[in-house]
User: Fold this.
Amino acid sequence: MDKRIERTNTKLRYSLLTLLKKNNLNKITVLELCKEAKINRTTFYKYYLDVDDYVKKIEKVLLEELKEEVADINRNFLITYIGRIVERIKKEKDLYPILLGSNGDKFFLRRILYLVHNESVEEWQRLLKKASEEDLDNIYIFIVDGSIGIIEKWIKNNCKDDPETIALFINKLCMSGLSSFI
Assistant:
């Protein structure tokens, strides 16, 4: 990639994160973002339609990275994946907590957690003989929504607890719920 494009993207990314600390994502304008990044709006519009388009492209890259990272998971898809996500949030504290925080994209964490939906449900079909397809889908929704609540609280507390502690807590809750369908 051209060094100028890389520098511009870096400026935009840090400027977006700076603005998200103060403002809700849907209130940030292209003018405001470009002013913070000290780039021309023409340059921005050359690559992006608007701030939402820019954020979606950042999220798409992050989702692709997460897909690659979880390619080696072969069992306990959702539970193992949640552990990796929590570790990633802690490791990239300058990015994820802001994107997932109160001013960020409310649905990004949900999209992240749904990356392993099909694999998780397939695994559960083999293990949970008493559960119908609808039960399995409802279980997934329940685990995802509960995990989102726990992760959001953890982020609000500046990710103070160890990622492993959070992942193990979510895992305990998941396993106790799933065991009733064995």
Q: What stands out?
A: Residues 70-182 form one domain. Residues 133-156 form the longest helix (24 residues). The chain has two domains: 1-57, 70-182. The chain has a mean pLDDT of 88.
